[in-house]
From TrEMBL:
Residue ranges of the TM segments: 58-80, 107-128, 179-203, 209-225, 296-321
A single BP term in Gene Ontology: oligopeptide export from mitochondrion
Originating organism: Agromyces terreus
Keyword field contains Glycoprotein: no
Topological type in the membrane: Multi-pass membrane protein
UniProt-annotated location(s): Cell inner membrane
Protein name in the entry: ATP-binding cassette subfamily B protein
Biased composition (Gly residues): 1-15
Pfam families: ABC_membrane (PF00664), ABC_tran (PF00005)
Family (UniProt): Belongs to the ABC transporter superfamily. Siderophore-Fe(3+) uptake transporter (SIUT) (TC 3.A.1.21) family.
Location of region: Disordered: 1-37
CDD domains found in the cross-reference section: ABC_6TM_exporter_like
Main location: membrane
Domain ABC transmembrane type-1 stretches: 62-358
Protein backbone atom coordinates (compact mmCIF):
# COMPACT_ATOMS: atom_id res chain seq x y z
CA UNK A 1 0.00 0.00 0.00
CA UNK A 2 1.39 3.39 -0.93
CA UNK A 3 1.97 5.69 2.00
CA UNK A 4 0.47 8.53 0.00
CA UNK A 5 -2.67 6.69 -0.88
CA UNK A 6 -4.19 7.90 -4.13
CA UNK A 7 -1.43 10.18 -5.29
CA UNK A 8 -0.60 12.53 -2.44
CA UNK A 9 3.05 12.58 -3.30
CA UNK A 10 4.59 15.79 -4.58
CA UNK A 11 4.56 16.07 -8.32
CA UNK A 12 1.61 13.70 -8.60
CA UNK A 13 -1.78 14.36 -10.08
CA UNK A 14 -2.61 17.87 -11.12
CA UNK A 15 -6.33 17.42 -10.59
CA UNK A 16 -8.67 19.93 -12.22
CA UNK A 17 -5.99 22.59 -12.43
CA UNK A 18 -4.41 21.08 -15.55
CA UNK A 19 -0.98 21.70 -16.97
CA UNK A 20 1.22 24.78 -16.87
CA UNK A 21 0.27 27.20 -19.62
CA UNK A 22 2.52 29.19 -21.89
CA UNK A 23 1.85 32.44 -23.66
CA UNK A 24 0.11 32.08 -27.02
CA UNK A 25 0.93 34.17 -30.03
CA UNK A 26 -1.73 36.77 -30.76
CA UNK A 27 -1.90 35.46 -34.34
CA UNK A 28 -2.78 31.92 -33.28
CA UNK A 29 -6.48 32.55 -32.70
CA UNK A 30 -7.56 28.89 -32.77
CA UNK A 31 -5.12 27.99 -29.98
CA UNK A 32 -6.20 31.01 -27.96
CA UNK A 33 -9.89 30.15 -28.35
CA UNK A 34 -9.20 26.56 -27.33
CA UNK A 35 -7.45 27.75 -24.18
CA UNK A 36 -10.23 30.20 -23.39
CA UNK A 37 -12.76 27.39 -23.67
CA UNK A 38 -10.97 25.57 -20.83
CA UNK A 39 -11.44 28.50 -18.44
CA UNK A 40 -13.70 27.76 -15.46
CA UNK A 41 -17.22 29.17 -15.11
CA UNK A 42 -17.22 31.87 -12.44
CA UNK A 43 -20.57 33.33 -11.26
CA UNK A 44 -20.86 37.14 -11.53
CA UNK A 45 -17.48 37.34 -13.24
CA UNK A 46 -17.99 40.86 -14.62
CA UNK A 47 -19.07 42.14 -11.21
CA UNK A 48 -16.00 40.69 -9.54
CA UNK A 49 -13.71 42.16 -12.20
CA UNK A 50 -15.36 45.56 -11.64
CA UNK A 51 -14.64 45.24 -7.92
CA UNK A 52 -10.92 44.87 -8.65
CA UNK A 53 -10.89 48.17 -10.55
CA UNK A 54 -13.29 49.98 -8.20
CA UNK A 55 -10.50 51.69 -6.18
CA UNK A 56 -9.30 53.26 -9.45
CA UNK A 57 -12.73 54.52 -10.57
CA UNK A 58 -11.62 58.14 -11.06
CA UNK A 59 -8.52 57.22 -13.03
CA UNK A 60 -10.54 54.82 -15.19
CA UNK A 61 -13.10 57.50 -16.02
CA UNK A 62 -10.33 59.91 -16.94
CA UNK A 63 -8.74 57.22 -19.13
CA UNK A 64 -11.97 56.70 -21.05
CA UNK A 65 -12.30 60.44 -21.59
CA UNK A 66 -8.71 60.65 -22.85
CA UNK A 67 -9.29 57.77 -25.27
CA UNK A 68 -12.42 59.41 -26.68
CA UNK A 69 -10.75 62.81 -27.01
CA UNK A 70 -7.62 61.34 -28.63
CA UNK A 71 -9.73 59.33 -31.10
CA UNK A 72 -11.76 62.42 -31.95
CA UNK A 73 -8.62 64.51 -32.47
CA UNK A 74 -7.34 61.91 -34.94
CA UNK A 75 -10.04 63.02 -37.40
CA UNK A 76 -8.96 66.66 -37.42
CA UNK A 77 -5.57 66.36 -39.26
CA UNK A 78 -7.10 64.90 -42.48
CA UNK A 79 -9.68 67.69 -42.58
CA UNK A 80 -6.94 70.25 -42.04
CA UNK A 81 -4.93 68.53 -44.78
CA UNK A 82 -7.79 69.18 -47.19
CA UNK A 83 -7.85 72.85 -46.21
CA UNK A 84 -4.06 73.07 -46.45
CA UNK A 85 -4.16 71.92 -50.07
CA UNK A 86 -7.31 73.72 -51.20
CA UNK A 87 -7.02 76.99 -49.25
CA UNK A 88 -3.28 77.25 -48.58
CA UNK A 89 -1.18 75.56 -51.25
CA UNK A 90 -3.50 75.72 -54.28
CA UNK A 91 -6.17 78.35 -53.58
CA UNK A 92 -8.66 79.16 -56.32
CA UNK A 93 -9.30 82.74 -57.39
CA UNK A 94 -12.90 83.49 -56.31
CA UNK A 95 -13.39 85.77 -59.31
CA UNK A 96 -12.17 83.13 -61.74
CA UNK A 97 -13.41 79.64 -60.78
CA UNK A 98 -10.91 76.92 -61.57
CA UNK A 99 -8.00 79.34 -61.71
CA UNK A 100 -5.33 78.39 -59.15
CA UNK A 101 -3.42 81.35 -57.72
CA UNK A 102 -0.27 81.70 -55.62
CA UNK A 103 -0.22 79.94 -52.22
CA UNK A 104 -1.96 81.79 -49.39
CA UNK A 105 0.87 81.70 -46.85
CA UNK A 106 -0.99 83.25 -43.89
CA UNK A 107 -3.79 80.71 -44.22
CA UNK A 108 -1.29 77.91 -44.78
CA UNK A 109 0.71 78.96 -41.71
CA UNK A 110 -2.45 78.98 -39.60
CA UNK A 111 -3.48 75.50 -40.82
CA UNK A 112 0.02 74.07 -40.32
CA UNK A 113 0.11 75.55 -36.81
CA UNK A 114 -3.27 74.01 -36.04
CA UNK A 115 -2.09 70.61 -37.33
CA UNK A 116 1.09 70.75 -35.19
CA UNK A 117 -0.98 71.78 -32.17
CA UNK A 118 -3.30 68.80 -32.71
CA UNK A 119 -0.30 66.47 -32.98
CA UNK A 120 1.25 67.90 -29.78
CA UNK A 121 -2.02 67.61 -27.85
CA UNK A 122 -2.56 64.06 -29.15
CA UNK A 123 0.96 63.06 -28.14
CA UNK A 124 0.53 64.52 -24.64
CA UNK A 125 -2.83 62.78 -24.24
CA UNK A 126 -1.27 59.50 -25.39
CA UNK A 127 1.51 59.78 -22.80
CA UNK A 128 -1.02 60.66 -20.09
CA UNK A 129 -3.28 57.77 -21.11
CA UNK A 130 -0.36 55.32 -21.14
CA UNK A 131 0.69 56.42 -17.65
CA UNK A 132 -2.86 56.04 -16.34
CA UNK A 133 -3.43 52.61 -17.86
CA UNK A 134 0.00 51.36 -16.80
CA UNK A 135 -0.54 52.63 -13.24
CA UNK A 136 -4.04 51.16 -12.93
CA UNK A 137 -3.17 47.85 -14.57
CA UNK A 138 0.02 47.28 -12.61
CA UNK A 139 -1.57 48.31 -9.30
CA UNK A 140 -4.43 45.87 -9.85
CA UNK A 141 -1.93 43.20 -10.94
CA UNK A 142 0.29 43.81 -7.91
CA UNK A 143 -2.62 43.66 -5.49
CA UNK A 144 -3.92 40.48 -7.13
CA UNK A 145 -0.49 38.85 -7.06
CA UNK A 146 -0.05 39.50 -3.33
CA UNK A 147 -3.64 38.45 -2.67
CA UNK A 148 -3.18 35.16 -4.51
CA UNK A 149 0.23 34.47 -2.93
CA UNK A 150 -1.27 35.15 0.50
CA UNK A 151 -4.20 32.87 -0.27
CA UNK A 152 -1.90 30.08 -1.47
CA UNK A 153 0.05 30.29 1.79
CA UNK A 154 -3.16 29.38 3.63
CA UNK A 155 -3.84 26.28 1.53
CA UNK A 156 -3.35 22.87 3.07
CA UNK A 157 -0.38 20.66 2.21
CA UNK A 158 -2.49 18.29 0.08
CA UNK A 159 -3.19 21.10 -2.41
CA UNK A 160 0.52 21.39 -3.18
CA UNK A 161 1.09 17.65 -3.36
CA UNK A 162 -1.60 17.23 -6.02
CA UNK A 163 -0.91 20.42 -8.01
CA UNK A 164 2.22 20.86 -10.09
CA UNK A 165 4.44 23.77 -9.13
CA UNK A 166 4.44 24.90 -12.77
CA UNK A 167 0.65 25.25 -12.70
CA UNK A 168 0.80 27.46 -9.61
CA UNK A 169 3.59 29.55 -11.13
CA UNK A 170 1.55 29.94 -14.32
CA UNK A 171 -1.34 31.42 -12.33
CA UNK A 172 0.96 33.88 -10.57
CA UNK A 173 3.05 34.84 -13.59
CA UNK A 174 1.01 34.37 -16.77
CA UNK A 175 -2.53 34.93 -15.53
CA UNK A 176 -1.96 37.59 -12.88
CA UNK A 177 0.79 39.11 -14.99
CA UNK A 178 -1.65 39.47 -17.87
CA UNK A 179 -3.95 41.71 -15.83
CA UNK A 180 -1.75 44.75 -16.45
CA UNK A 181 -2.22 44.39 -20.20
CA UNK A 182 -6.01 43.94 -20.06
CA UNK A 183 -6.65 47.64 -19.62
CA UNK A 184 -4.15 48.68 -22.28
CA UNK A 185 -4.64 45.92 -24.83
CA UNK A 186 -8.34 45.25 -24.41
CA UNK A 187 -10.40 48.06 -22.91
CA UNK A 188 -8.42 50.99 -24.28
CA UNK A 189 -7.79 49.23 -27.58
CA UNK A 190 -11.42 48.29 -28.17
CA UNK A 191 -12.70 51.72 -27.17
CA UNK A 192 -10.03 53.65 -29.03
CA UNK A 193 -10.23 51.60 -32.23
CA UNK A 194 -14.02 51.78 -32.29
CA UNK A 195 -14.02 55.55 -31.99
CA UNK A 196 -11.17 55.83 -34.53
CA UNK A 197 -12.99 53.74 -37.14
CA UNK A 198 -16.29 55.55 -36.67
CA UNK A 199 -14.59 58.96 -36.71
CA UNK A 200 -12.57 58.05 -39.80
CA UNK A 201 -15.65 56.94 -41.72
CA UNK A 202 -17.45 60.13 -40.70
CA UNK A 203 -14.48 62.19 -41.88
CA UNK A 204 -14.34 60.27 -45.16
CA UNK A 205 -18.06 60.76 -45.68
CA UNK A 206 -17.73 64.47 -45.02
CA UNK A 207 -14.88 64.68 -47.51
CA UNK A 208 -16.72 62.78 -50.26
CA UNK A 209 -19.45 60.20 -49.96
CA UNK A 210 -18.78 58.62 -53.39
CA UNK A 211 -15.13 57.90 -52.56
CA UNK A 212 -16.23 56.54 -49.17
CA UNK A 213 -18.46 53.98 -50.87
CA UNK A 214 -15.51 52.86 -53.02
CA UNK A 215 -13.25 52.49 -49.96
CA UNK A 216 -15.92 50.59 -48.01
CA UNK A 217 -16.38 48.16 -50.90
CA UNK A 218 -12.63 47.50 -51.28
CA UNK A 219 -11.59 47.50 -47.60
CA UNK A 220 -13.09 44.06 -46.71
CA UNK A 221 -11.02 42.38 -49.44
CA UNK A 222 -7.83 43.69 -47.84
CA UNK A 223 -8.90 42.69 -44.32
CA UNK A 224 -9.93 39.19 -45.43
CA UNK A 225 -6.68 38.68 -47.32
CA UNK A 226 -4.66 39.78 -44.32
CA UNK A 227 -6.57 37.44 -41.99
CA UNK A 228 -6.14 34.46 -44.32
CA UNK A 229 -2.41 35.00 -44.65
CA UNK A 230 -2.17 35.61 -40.91
CA UNK A 231 -3.78 32.22 -40.19
CA UNK A 232 -1.31 30.47 -42.48
CA UNK A 233 1.59 32.17 -40.75
CA UNK A 234 0.16 31.27 -37.33
CA UNK A 235 -0.16 27.60 -38.32
CA UNK A 236 3.39 27.44 -39.65
CA UNK A 237 4.64 29.33 -36.59
CA UNK A 238 3.00 26.73 -34.35
CA UNK A 239 4.67 23.90 -36.27
CA UNK A 240 7.99 25.75 -36.06
CA UNK A 241 7.69 26.09 -32.28
CA UNK A 242 6.86 22.41 -31.92
CA UNK A 243 9.92 21.53 -34.00
CA UNK A 244 12.10 23.84 -31.90
CA UNK A 245 10.72 22.23 -28.74
CA UNK A 246 11.60 18.79 -30.10
CA UNK A 247 15.14 19.95 -30.92
CA UNK A 248 15.47 21.39 -27.42
CA UNK A 249 14.24 18.12 -25.91
CA UNK A 250 16.76 16.13 -27.95
CA UNK A 251 19.52 18.50 -26.84
CA UNK A 252 18.56 18.24 -23.17
CA UNK A 253 18.24 14.48 -23.31
CA UNK A 254 21.43 13.69 -25.21
CA UNK A 255 23.86 16.41 -24.14
CA UNK A 256 23.30 16.09 -20.40
CA UNK A 257 25.83 14.10 -18.43
CA UNK A 258 23.39 11.22 -18.01
CA UNK A 259 22.40 11.32 -21.70
CA UNK A 260 25.98 11.34 -22.95
CA UNK A 261 26.87 8.48 -20.61
CA UNK A 262 23.90 6.47 -21.86
CA UNK A 263 24.60 7.05 -25.57
CA UNK A 264 28.29 6.21 -25.15
CA UNK A 265 27.48 3.13 -23.11
CA UNK A 266 25.34 1.76 -25.93
CA UNK A 267 27.34 3.34 -28.79
CA UNK A 268 24.23 5.19 -29.97
CA UNK A 269 25.89 8.54 -30.72
CA UNK A 270 25.21 8.28 -34.46
CA UNK A 271 21.56 7.49 -33.79
CA UNK A 272 21.24 10.67 -31.72
CA UNK A 273 23.04 12.67 -34.42
CA UNK A 274 20.59 11.35 -37.01
CA UNK A 275 17.60 12.27 -34.81
CA UNK A 276 18.91 15.78 -34.38
CA UNK A 277 19.75 16.17 -38.09
CA UNK A 278 16.28 14.99 -39.14
CA UNK A 279 14.58 17.47 -36.84
CA UNK A 280 16.98 20.17 -37.99
CA UNK A 281 15.96 19.58 -41.63
CA UNK A 282 12.32 19.89 -40.60
CA UNK A 283 13.12 23.13 -38.83
CA UNK A 284 14.91 24.55 -41.89
CA UNK A 285 11.93 23.76 -44.13
CA UNK A 286 9.49 25.37 -41.72
CA UNK A 287 11.64 28.47 -41.35
CA UNK A 288 11.81 28.88 -45.12
CA UNK A 289 8.03 28.42 -45.44
CA UNK A 290 7.44 30.93 -42.66
CA UNK A 291 9.74 33.48 -44.30
CA UNK A 292 8.13 33.00 -47.71
CA UNK A 293 4.65 33.23 -46.23
CA UNK A 294 5.70 36.48 -44.68
CA UNK A 295 6.94 37.77 -48.00
CA UNK A 296 3.66 36.94 -49.71
CA UNK A 297 1.86 38.53 -46.81
CA UNK A 298 3.71 41.83 -47.09
CA UNK A 299 3.44 41.73 -50.88
CA UNK A 300 -0.34 41.29 -50.69
CA UNK A 301 -0.69 44.03 -48.11
CA UNK A 302 1.41 46.36 -50.25
CA UNK A 303 -0.68 45.51 -53.32
CA UNK A 304 -3.93 46.23 -51.50
CA UNK A 305 -2.58 49.30 -49.73
CA UNK A 306 -1.46 50.67 -53.08
CA UNK A 307 -4.51 49.53 -54.99
CA UNK A 308 -7.15 51.25 -52.89
CA UNK A 309 -5.65 54.77 -53.25
CA UNK A 310 -5.04 54.09 -56.94
CA UNK A 311 -8.67 53.09 -57.44
CA UNK A 312 -9.72 56.12 -55.42
CA UNK A 313 -7.66 58.30 -57.79
CA UNK A 314 -9.38 56.68 -60.77
CA UNK A 315 -12.84 57.23 -59.30
CA UNK A 316 -11.91 60.78 -58.36
CA UNK A 317 -10.81 61.42 -61.94
CA UNK A 318 -14.10 60.09 -63.24
CA UNK A 319 -16.00 62.29 -60.81
CA UNK A 320 -13.98 65.37 -61.75
CA UNK A 321 -14.46 64.57 -65.43
CA UNK A 322 -18.16 64.33 -64.77
CA UNK A 323 -18.19 67.82 -63.32
CA UNK A 324 -18.10 67.05 -59.59
CA UNK A 325 -17.00 70.36 -58.08
CA UNK A 326 -16.46 69.00 -54.52
CA UNK A 327 -13.61 66.65 -55.53
CA UNK A 328 -10.41 68.65 -55.17
CA UNK A 329 -6.74 67.78 -54.75
CA UNK A 330 -7.08 68.45 -51.04
CA UNK A 331 -10.09 66.15 -50.82
CA UNK A 332 -8.22 63.31 -52.53
CA UNK A 333 -5.08 63.67 -50.36
CA UNK A 334 -7.09 63.97 -47.15
CA UNK A 335 -9.31 61.04 -48.10
CA UNK A 336 -6.45 58.65 -48.89
CA UNK A 337 -4.72 59.71 -45.66
CA UNK A 338 -7.75 58.75 -43.59
CA UNK A 339 -8.35 55.55 -45.55
CA UNK A 340 -4.75 54.39 -45.09
CA UNK A 341 -5.15 54.65 -41.31
CA UNK A 342 -8.20 52.39 -41.17
CA UNK A 343 -6.57 49.01 -41.76
CA UNK A 344 -5.03 48.29 -38.37
CA UNK A 345 -7.97 49.59 -36.27
CA UNK A 346 -10.28 47.41 -38.38
CA UNK A 347 -8.07 44.37 -37.86
CA UNK A 348 -8.01 45.04 -34.14
CA UNK A 349 -11.79 45.34 -33.99
CA UNK A 350 -12.14 41.99 -35.74
CA UNK A 351 -10.41 40.48 -32.70
CA UNK A 352 -12.69 42.23 -30.20
CA UNK A 353 -14.69 39.13 -29.26
CA UNK A 354 -11.52 37.06 -28.89
CA UNK A 355 -9.83 39.76 -26.80
CA UNK A 356 -12.83 40.05 -24.50
CA UNK A 357 -13.09 36.27 -24.21
CA UNK A 358 -9.36 36.04 -23.44
CA UNK A 359 -9.61 38.71 -20.75
CA UNK A 360 -12.59 36.97 -19.17
CA UNK A 361 -10.76 33.62 -19.21
CA UNK A 362 -7.75 35.29 -17.60
CA UNK A 363 -9.79 36.60 -14.68
CA UNK A 364 -11.78 33.35 -14.42
CA UNK A 365 -8.58 31.37 -13.85
CA UNK A 366 -7.46 33.87 -11.22
CA UNK A 367 -10.78 33.78 -9.36
CA UNK A 368 -10.78 29.98 -9.52
CA UNK A 369 -7.71 29.97 -7.29
CA UNK A 370 -8.95 32.77 -5.06
CA UNK A 371 -12.19 30.84 -4.53
CA UNK A 372 -10.36 27.77 -3.24
CA UNK A 373 -11.04 27.21 0.43
CA UNK A 374 -8.47 25.52 2.69
CA UNK A 375 -9.77 22.25 4.08
CA UNK A 376 -7.81 22.80 7.29
CA UNK A 377 -8.75 26.01 9.12
CA UNK A 378 -8.91 27.21 12.70
CA UNK A 379 -12.22 26.77 14.49
CA UNK A 380 -13.96 30.05 15.44
CA UNK A 381 -13.19 29.40 19.12
CA UNK A 382 -9.69 27.94 18.55
CA UNK A 383 -7.20 28.51 21.36
CA UNK A 384 -3.44 28.34 21.81
CA UNK A 385 -1.82 25.08 22.82
CA UNK A 386 -1.57 24.94 26.59
CA UNK A 387 1.72 25.03 28.46
CA UNK A 388 2.41 23.06 31.60
CA UNK A 389 3.24 19.47 32.51
CA UNK A 390 1.25 18.05 29.59
CA UNK A 391 3.16 20.06 26.98
CA UNK A 392 4.84 17.53 24.71
CA UNK A 393 2.31 14.75 25.13
CA UNK A 394 1.10 13.38 21.77
CA UNK A 395 -1.86 11.02 21.55
CA UNK A 396 -3.59 9.19 18.72
CA UNK A 397 -6.99 7.76 19.63
CA UNK A 398 -8.40 5.42 16.96
CA UNK A 399 -7.01 7.60 14.18
CA UNK A 400 -7.93 6.69 10.62
CA UNK A 401 -6.62 8.61 7.63
CA UNK A 402 -7.07 8.50 3.89
CA UNK A 403 -5.34 10.99 1.58
CA UNK A 404 -7.80 13.45 -0.04
CA UNK A 405 -7.30 12.20 -3.58
CA UNK A 406 -7.41 8.49 -2.70
CA UNK A 407 -10.20 6.49 -4.30
CA UNK A 408 -12.97 4.95 -2.20
CA UNK A 409 -11.74 1.42 -2.83
CA UNK A 410 -8.21 2.25 -1.62
CA UNK A 411 -7.28 0.99 1.83
CA UNK A 412 -6.76 3.82 4.36
CA UNK A 413 -3.18 4.91 4.97
CA UNK A 414 -3.77 4.73 8.74
CA UNK A 415 -6.44 2.43 10.16
CA UNK A 416 -7.48 2.76 13.81
CA UNK A 417 -4.06 3.85 15.12
CA UNK A 418 -3.82 4.53 18.87
CA UNK A 419 -0.76 5.38 20.98
CA UNK A 420 0.45 7.85 23.60
CA UNK A 421 3.87 9.51 23.73
CA UNK A 422 4.64 11.14 27.06
CA UNK A 423 6.52 14.45 27.40
CA UNK A 424 10.26 13.95 26.94
CA UNK A 425 9.95 10.46 25.45
CA UNK A 426 11.88 9.38 22.35
CA UNK A 427 9.38 7.45 20.19
CA UNK A 428 10.33 5.75 16.95
CA UNK A 429 8.03 4.58 14.16
CA UNK A 430 9.44 1.84 11.94
CA UNK A 431 8.10 -0.51 9.33
CA UNK A 432 8.12 -1.33 5.63
CA UNK A 433 8.06 1.46 3.03
CA UNK A 434 4.55 2.78 2.45
CA UNK A 435 3.27 1.53 5.79
CA UNK A 436 2.06 5.00 6.91
CA UNK A 437 4.93 6.12 9.16
CA UNK A 438 5.39 9.57 7.61
CA UNK A 439 1.64 10.15 7.70
CA UNK A 440 1.86 10.08 11.50
CA UNK A 441 4.31 12.99 11.35
CA UNK A 442 1.91 14.92 9.09
CA UNK A 443 -1.06 14.55 11.43
CA UNK A 444 0.69 15.75 14.60
CA UNK A 445 1.18 19.37 13.37
CA UNK A 446 -2.16 19.07 11.49
CA UNK A 447 -0.63 19.40 8.04
CA UNK A 448 -3.35 16.89 7.15
CA UNK A 449 -6.65 16.33 8.95
CA UNK A 450 -7.40 12.91 10.41
CA UNK A 451 -10.31 11.23 8.62
CA UNK A 452 -11.49 9.57 11.82
CA UNK A 453 -10.49 9.40 15.47
CA UNK A 454 -8.71 12.10 17.45
CA UNK A 455 -5.20 13.50 17.50
CA UNK A 456 -4.34 15.25 20.77
CA UNK A 457 -1.49 17.59 21.62
CA UNK A 458 -0.84 18.39 25.28
CA UNK A 459 -4.22 16.86 26.08
CA UNK A 460 -6.22 18.96 23.59
CA UNK A 461 -7.79 17.89 20.30
CA UNK A 462 -5.61 19.51 17.60
CA UNK A 463 -8.80 20.65 15.81
CA UNK A 464 -9.54 22.88 18.81
CA UNK A 465 -6.12 24.53 18.75
CA UNK A 466 -4.91 27.47 16.70
CA UNK A 467 -2.74 25.86 14.04
CA UNK A 468 -0.03 28.53 14.22
CA UNK A 469 0.24 27.90 17.96
CA UNK A 470 0.47 24.15 17.37
CA UNK A 471 3.17 24.43 14.69
CA UNK A 472 5.20 26.84 16.85
CA UNK A 473 5.62 24.05 19.38
CA UNK A 474 6.73 21.43 16.86
CA UNK A 475 10.05 21.28 15.02
CA UNK A 476 10.37 19.13 11.89
CA UNK A 477 13.57 17.77 10.32
CA UNK A 478 12.74 15.96 7.11
CA UNK A 479 14.71 13.74 4.78
CA UNK A 480 14.70 16.41 2.05
CA UNK A 481 16.46 19.39 3.58
CA UNK A 482 15.48 22.70 2.02
CA UNK A 483 17.85 25.64 2.22
CA UNK A 484 17.31 29.01 0.57
CA UNK A 485 19.82 30.59 -1.81
CA UNK A 486 21.10 32.80 0.97
CA UNK A 487 23.75 32.85 3.69
CA UNK A 488 23.95 30.25 6.42
CA UNK A 489 22.96 32.92 8.94
CA UNK A 490 19.89 33.86 6.90
CA UNK A 491 18.85 30.21 6.64
CA UNK A 492 19.17 29.76 10.38
CA UNK A 493 17.27 32.97 11.16
CA UNK A 494 14.33 31.66 9.14
CA UNK A 495 13.34 29.94 12.41
CA UNK A 496 13.94 33.04 14.55
CA UNK A 497 14.43 36.31 12.62
CA UNK A 498 15.57 38.24 15.70
CA UNK A 499 18.19 35.67 16.75
CA UNK A 500 21.56 37.07 17.80
CA UNK A 501 24.89 35.81 16.50
CA UNK A 502 25.48 34.12 19.85
CA UNK A 503 22.18 32.24 19.52
CA UNK A 504 23.07 31.15 16.00
CA UNK A 505 26.40 29.79 17.17
CA UNK A 506 24.83 28.02 20.16
CA UNK A 507 22.33 26.27 17.90
CA UNK A 508 25.06 25.36 15.42
CA UNK A 509 27.25 23.90 18.19
CA UNK A 510 24.33 21.84 19.43
CA UNK A 511 23.88 20.53 15.88
CA UNK A 512 27.61 19.73 15.58
CA UNK A 513 28.07 22.11 12.62
CA UNK A 514 29.66 25.26 14.12
CA UNK A 515 33.26 24.20 13.48
CA UNK A 516 32.44 23.29 9.89
CA UNK A 517 30.80 26.68 9.32
CA UNK A 518 33.79 28.51 10.77
CA UNK A 519 36.09 26.62 8.41
CA UNK A 520 34.46 28.41 5.47
CA UNK A 521 36.15 31.70 4.50
CA UNK A 522 32.96 33.71 5.06
CA UNK A 523 31.80 31.72 8.08
CA UNK A 524 28.12 32.29 8.82
CA UNK A 525 27.92 34.68 5.85
CA UNK A 526 28.69 31.86 3.42
CA UNK A 527 26.10 31.63 0.66
CA UNK A 528 24.86 28.06 0.45
CA UNK A 529 23.69 28.23 -3.20
CA UNK A 530 20.45 27.00 -4.75
CA UNK A 531 18.94 24.41 -2.39
CA UNK A 532 22.26 24.38 -0.57
CA UNK A 533 24.17 22.74 -3.45
CA UNK A 534 27.51 24.12 -2.17
CA UNK A 535 27.20 22.00 0.98
CA UNK A 536 27.36 18.25 1.45
CA UNK A 537 24.27 16.28 2.43
CA UNK A 538 25.43 15.93 6.01
CA UNK A 539 26.25 19.65 6.30
CA UNK A 540 22.85 20.64 4.98
CA UNK A 541 21.11 18.27 7.37
CA UNK A 542 23.01 19.59 10.38
CA UNK A 543 22.18 23.19 9.40
CA UNK A 544 18.54 22.11 9.23
CA UNK A 545 18.85 20.64 12.71
CA UNK A 546 20.45 23.86 13.97
CA UNK A 547 17.56 25.81 12.45
CA UNK A 548 15.06 23.68 14.37
CA UNK A 549 17.06 24.01 17.58
CA UNK A 550 16.99 27.78 17.19
CA UNK A 551 13.20 27.48 17.21
CA UNK A 552 13.53 25.47 20.43
CA UNK A 553 10.28 23.46 20.18
CA UNK A 554 9.09 21.09 22.92
CA UNK A 555 8.27 18.44 20.28
CA UNK A 556 10.71 17.31 17.59
CA UNK A 557 9.67 15.30 14.52
CA UNK A 558 12.46 13.51 12.63
CA UNK A 559 11.22 12.15 9.31
CA UNK A 560 13.93 9.74 8.10
CA UNK A 561 16.42 12.55 8.65
CA UNK A 562 19.48 10.38 7.92
CA UNK A 563 18.22 7.89 5.34
CA UNK A 564 19.81 9.69 2.37
CA UNK A 565 23.27 10.04 3.96
CA UNK A 566 26.37 7.92 3.72
CA UNK A 567 27.55 6.01 6.78
CA UNK A 568 30.04 8.63 8.02
CA UNK A 569 27.65 11.56 7.51
CA UNK A 570 24.85 9.56 9.11
CA UNK A 571 26.92 8.97 12.23
CA UNK A 572 27.73 12.68 12.60
CA UNK A 573 24.15 13.78 11.95
CA UNK A 574 22.75 11.10 14.27
CA UNK A 575 24.92 12.43 17.10
CA UNK A 576 23.49 15.90 16.44
CA UNK A 577 19.96 14.49 16.42
CA UNK A 578 20.51 12.62 19.67
CA UNK A 579 21.73 15.83 21.30
CA UNK A 580 18.78 17.76 19.88
CA UNK A 581 16.30 15.19 21.20
CA UNK A 582 17.38 15.48 24.85
CA UNK A 583 14.67 17.05 26.96
CA UNK A 584 12.12 17.04 24.13
CA UNK A 585 9.36 14.76 23.01
CA UNK A 586 10.81 13.21 19.87
CA UNK A 587 8.95 11.38 17.12
CA UNK A 588 11.42 9.65 14.81
CA UNK A 589 10.32 8.10 11.52
CA UNK A 590 13.13 5.66 10.85
CA UNK A 591 14.16 3.45 7.97
CA UNK A 592 17.48 2.36 9.41
CA UNK A 593 16.64 0.59 12.66
CA UNK A 594 20.17 1.03 13.98
CA UNK A 595 19.35 4.71 14.58
CA UNK A 596 16.50 4.02 17.00
CA UNK A 597 17.73 1.10 19.13
CA UNK A 598 17.93 3.43 22.15
CA UNK A 599 14.38 4.81 21.72
CA UNK A 600 12.11 4.82 24.77
CA UNK A 601 9.37 3.18 22.72
CA UNK A 602 9.30 1.75 19.20
CA UNK A 603 6.06 1.44 17.24
CA UNK A 604 6.06 -1.00 14.33
CA UNK A 605 3.66 0.07 11.58
CA UNK A 606 2.46 -2.33 8.88
CA UNK A 607 -0.29 -1.48 6.36
CA UNK A 608 -1.51 1.45 8.42
CA UNK A 609 -1.73 -0.39 11.75
CA UNK A 610 0.55 -0.59 14.78
CA UNK A 611 1.31 -4.27 15.05
CA UNK A 612 4.06 -4.15 17.70
CA UNK A 613 5.41 -1.72 20.29
CA UNK A 614 8.09 -1.82 22.94
CA UNK A 615 11.80 -1.19 23.42
CA UNK A 616 14.44 -2.66 21.14
CA UNK A 617 15.32 -5.64 23.34
CA UNK A 618 11.69 -6.61 23.87
CA UNK A 619 10.88 -6.50 20.16
CA UNK A 620 13.95 -8.52 19.23
CA UNK A 621 13.01 -11.13 21.82
CA UNK A 622 9.43 -11.24 20.51
CA UNK A 623 10.74 -12.39 17.13
CA UNK A 624 8.04 -10.54 15.18
CA UNK A 625 8.10 -8.00 12.35
CA UNK A 626 10.66 -5.74 14.03
CA UNK A 627 13.06 -8.60 14.66
CA UNK A 628 12.72 -9.72 11.04
CA UNK A 629 13.39 -6.20 9.70
CA UNK A 630 16.37 -5.79 12.02
CA UNK A 631 17.94 -9.06 10.90
CA UNK A 632 17.44 -8.16 7.23
CA UNK A 633 19.24 -4.83 7.70
CA UNK A 634 22.07 -6.46 9.63
CA UNK A 635 22.57 -9.01 6.87
CA UNK A 636 22.30 -6.48 4.03
CA UNK A 637 26.01 -5.45 4.06
CA UNK A 638 27.06 -9.10 3.89
CA UNK A 639 24.79 -9.66 0.90
CA UNK A 640 26.26 -6.68 -0.93
Amino acid sequence: MSMHGGGGAPGGQTGKFGKPRTRISAADESAQRAENAEAPEIPNLLGRIAELFAPHRTALTLTVVLVLVAAGLSVIPPLLTQRAFDDGLFPVDPSEPGQVVAPNLPVLAWIVGAMIAVYIVSALLAVWQTWLTATIGNNVMGALRVRMFTHLQSMELSFFTRTKTGVIQSRLQNDVGGVASVLTNTVSSVLGNTVTVISAFIAMWLLNWQLTVVAIVLMPFMVIAQRRVGKVRARIAGQTQESLSEMTAITQETLSVSGILLSKSFTRQQNEIDRYADENRTQIGLQVRQQMTGQWFFAMVNIFMSSIPAIVYLVAGLLIGGGAADVTAGTIVAFTTVQARLLFPLMALMRVSLDLQTSSALFARIFEYLDLRPTITDAPDARDAASGPALGRVEFDGVTFRYPDATDDTAPTLDGVSFTIEPGQYAAFVGPSGAGKTTVSYLVPRLYEATGGTVRFAGDDVRELRQSSLVERIGIVSQETYLFHATIADNLRYAKPEATQAELEAAARAANIHETIMSFPAGYETTVGERGYRLSGGEKQRIAIARVLLKDPPVLVLDEATSALDTISERVVQEALDDAARGRTTIAIAHRLSTVVAADVIFVVVAGRIVEQGVHAELIAAGGVYASLYRQQEQAPAVR
